[in-house]
Amino acid sequence: MSRARSVKALRGHPLTYLTLVAVAFFSAFPVYWSVIVASHDNAALAEVPPPLLPGGNFFANVQRVFDTAPFALALLNSFVVAGTITVSVMFLSTLAGFAFAKLRFRGRNVLLLMTVVTMMVPTQLGIIPLYMLMIKLEWTGTMYAVIVPALVNAFGVFFMTQYLSRALPTELLEAGRIDGCSTARLFWHVVIPAARPAAAVLGMLTFMTAWNDYFWPLVVLTPDNPTVQVALSQLASGYVRDFTLGLTGTAVATLPLVLIFVLLGKQIIGGIMQGAVKG
Amino acid sequence: MASPPGGSLRTATPSPGGPPAAQSSPGGPSGTGTPAHPRAASGWRSRLHRLDRQASPYAYVAPFFLLFAAFGVFPLIYTAWVSLHDWNLLSSDNPFIGLDNYKALFADGYFWNAAFNTLSIGVLSAVPQLLLALVLAHLLNRPLRAQTLFRITLLLPNVTSVVAVVVIFSQLFGRDFGLINMVLDWLGFGRINWQAGVATSHVAIAVMIMWRWTGYNALIYLAAMQAVPREIYEAATLDGASSLKQLWGITLPMIRPTVIFTVIVTTIGSMQIIAEPLLFGAQVSNGAAATGGTDRQFQTLALYLYEKGFRSFEFGYASAAAWMMFLLVVVVVAFNYLVVRRMRGGLDV
């Protein structure tokens, strides 16, 4: 009797499912709602009850979005920005992570500690001097201002250090040394293959963060040469309350990420959970 | 974990692409410890080898540290210097004024208003968010059907950008056509002008933050919970401990480091909230964006910094605000850390 109860308690109780389904509903509904609004016209929003199924106006609304804001340029900019940052962060984090995890050198612990500590400092503390620096370099209004400061980050280095110190067998590196491999050769032929799973996760997280970044691009870019998030915020905060336009823009800006997420969701979740335990 | 790296090492050996020091040993056919030391071959090669081993680590961390120093660490430190000056974007002369910026800041009612709003929105969003995440993780931490589907749905809000979240929720919280008001009206509560009041706007913004981050934190808790041995729960269940009691009595003490980690990260994040109030205000009018509503009812500290730094371009004053914000973060993080640590004492009884 009590044994049966214990097994039942460990498995899904109907109430467990009910709660989870309710939470899943609240998680997904706002996204679904944006699709509904984006596929109707503004008049439909005033109806009681409001429409709960997608309408047939989506592509007409998308056309309006591209007519109203420089969305095509914004999408291109965001792809270039997020793509460059992702490749750079993956490569440079693996490089530094390898050195921190497996190479012995003077100052290693101090440097690693510095990296971890700065992870905890709010980024906004340095935003004014960073902006002044961009003015000095004459990068304001260009994509350099968005890309270059994000080419490396402390989290990436920390993440790769953690992973490589666990997943890369030191004996393998020693065997390579005995075979006469230089450090560079070890990096290309031993470290990079071993780092691939973690680097992929880091890449996905970095791409998402870069794609969704809003505050810094808003500060340094101009309305005529924006990233997707900046263009979207302009679209949605015009003087005319045009919810359909705003939410269609939202759908267009979010679609690339949701696609990536649906395709690679399992790995992304695995990566977040993996990083969390060690963090 | 991946394909055996040793294999790729061997297949790559004949390629002549490597740097000069990377002479492969043609003698060792499979590299199984045959001591074909190429080092012994000549003096310059051994010197090159030593140089490689000593200098490489620095070369490998250098790209990171150079970029990080220029665009990460330098601005952090330089903020302190700028905050001691009357520094403006337009003026060419930036006189040193000591602590005058800080004095002016302390006398500014808008600064304290922003500090209050930051703490209020922070508490309203972080506390329910982490508690809910804990319960969700507890529910997910058992063999369930559609486990992956639940997880993906929970993380979906986190993939959505801040801008998208605020645009969507501003529509949902809209006074006239918002879905939430429509439901409230239908239930007989009447419509609420969410943006107008202090409490209502704080709740609306807290809901946006909660929506975006609860699932993420739940997954982090879940990861930690999965490391707790299952037998403990089975024993507790046989002893008749309820599920909620198990969460409080077993799970929480076992995943304490993770709880502390999320509390700190969430605290730092909620002290920096800016995009939500900025965009929420922009939904009313562009003029109300940087002030966080027409009466500054939801201007956070970060938004105050933005107003001073990037609307009126008072760099010195804004830098002082940035340092005060940092100080507040340190104080609140320390406070929360102590609270979470103390909680443990109660649990062990």
DSSP summary: helix tally of chain A: 14
The tally of strands of chain B reads 0
Structural class of chain A: mainly alpha
User: What is the approximate shape of chain B?
Assistant: flat
Rg of chain B, alpha carbons: 28 Å
Family (chain A): Belongs to the binding-protein-dependent transport system permease family.
Main location (chain A): membrane
Protein name (chain A): ABC transporter permease subunit
Pfam family, one (chain A): BPD_transp_1
What's the structural blueprint in terms of helices and strands?
The complex is a heterodimer of chains A (279) and B (349).
Chain A (H helix, E strand, L loop, with lengths): L1 H9 L3 H25 L3 H4 L12 H11 L2 H32 L5 H12 L7 H11 L6 H4 L6 H14 L2 H9 L4 H30 L2 H6 L7 H9 L6 H36 L1
Helix pairs in contact in A: 2-14, 4-14, 5-9, 5-11, 5-13, 6-9, 9-11, 11-14, 13-14
Chain B lengths: L4 H8 L30 H40 L17 H8 L1 H32 L6 H13 L2 H11 L6 H8 L11 H28 L4 H9 L4 H12 L1 H16 L3 H8 L18 H11 L3 H34 L1
Helix pairs in contact in B: 3-14, 4-8, 4-11, 4-13, 5-8, 6-8, 6-12, 11-14, 13-14
